[in-house]
Batch of 2 targets.
Target 1
Amino acid sequence: MENISQTEILINEVSESYPEKETLVKLLSLDGKEAADVLFKEAYAAKGKYVGKKVYFRGLIEFSNICEKNCYYCGIRRDNKQAHRYQMTEEEAVEAGLWAYESKYGSIVLQAGERTDRAHIDRVERIVQKLMEKSEGKLGITLSLGEQSKETYARWFKAGAKRYLLRIETSSKELYKQLHPPDHVFEERLRCLYDLKDLGYQSGTGVMIGLPGQTAAHLADDLLFFKEYNVDMIGMGPYLQHNQTPLATAFDDFETVKIRNFELTLKMIALARIMLKDVNIAATTAMQAIKPFGREAALLAGANVMMPNITEKKYRGDYKLYENKPCSDEDYDECASCLEGRIKAIGETVGYGEHGDPLHYFRRRG
Ligand code: 5AD
Ligand code: SF4
Ligand code: FES
């Protein structure tokens, strides 16, 4: 009992003011199911109050797994010669986007490995333009295409993309250095995030949870970073090991670590909801890679967005950032109806035909 009222006091501090890092560390370190349940319950109440119990779908199109980068944790990093590389045609990408539009998904996310060459930049621009044209400007388009020049971001914005997701991965410069080769520069990532904001994008960021070397103090700083950046959208997921990466042997007993990462991700979602209130938070697929009902658990801890994978089955299996990625054998329509069922089962509804823009974006811009 003592423990629970103490938890409530700490949660109040997170919801009412700019919390101390120490408070966040204590909540992230909460032990035991009862105390964690208090946190999830409060977060769910905050979700109901600030964004409602409606889940917005973003159809996720993974249009290529070719990547110039070499992040130590990622299965499609440049040096993984075992990854089978693919690139959808423009027509395939447009077709997938229109399928989402016709299925009343309000919006899509175009994601791919990072590339900065002219052909890629032009191709993305054309895909966005075509989708805007064919949906009469009605389809919401989010890009998740990594670090680019401000000029490129501006071109894609002009073409019609109004949201961008770029995870900071970790807000600790030291940890960032340990997870990336020297040509990945933390300051450059920040530059991108602020350029996106400056151009008027609805801006999303996030981190991986449970990375080797990451502590509760790092995660507390990540939450404070979201607040400082004044984020509109958050995508956070548990770190998952991939065999063909340099970090494959970082943990001895990953089966145990993975469960801890899952629990910690739920706490991060709950704290982000309580602290940041009217932002959009994704229940990411990586949650379901650990537990069959992982995404539902994320919704019940405060998330309000889901990204049904609408990549064609023939490509899906190759977009493997981590192992055991769920839904690899299902086709896009199967996945969508499965997700709808999951949402209904917890008493929520899908916001069909709505963009589901982050309310925070409009509030911060006045
Ligand atoms: N485990 C979990 N998430 C990962 N990502 C990349 N590799 C992994 C992994 N091994 C995430 C990164 C990236 C997003 C597209 O996928 O956070 O930004
Ligand atoms: Fe490329 Fe992104 Fe994977 Fe890094 S995390 S290797 S940028 S796809
Ligand atoms: Fe993809 Fe169930 S969520 S098949």
Note: The longest strand covers residues 54-64.
Target 2
Amino acid sequence: MKKLTNPVTEIDGKVKKLIDDMFESMYNADGIGLAANQVGESLSIITIDTAPAQKENEKKNPPIALINPILEEVSENESDYQEGCLSVPDLHEKVIRPVSIQVRYYNENAKEKVLNTDGILARVIQHEIDHLSGILFYERLTPIRRTLVKNKLKNIQKGKIIPAYPMILPDGTRIEGKVKE
Ligand code: ZN
């Protein structure tokens, strides 16, 4: 069953602690983005740090937490990029998405912000906002690609592929992950 998220109604110490914990989980799992419902909290919060996925000579986007993010605009221009997901271990597929976006959100200091961005940051924001409404990246593949990845997905859902980090799987099961040696 898909787990949907509720908007944050007050940005208090609990929310800030959750954001800190989310960054920690994300870095532990070598992820570049995380949605709160991936770690069992059904709140509309995402954390992102795209730096590890950026080119060496590129200016690094700072880590960012978005509370109650809303995609206000997306470009007609689209691109593809090989995406992966901490909730779908071992699956990497090219996903087509708009290149640039406008997103409205609150930061951890309860300030309302509007961000216009493109490239990797726009991509990760879209992937994570999808999570908040229960959409996983493989649902955005073309039907033919989806059929091809079906068996792999079955193995992931059966728990045959276990990630190296604790995570909530798409069906809501919590897994502890392999212990790092
Ligand atoms: Zn994901």
Note: The two ends are 33 Å apart (CA to CA).
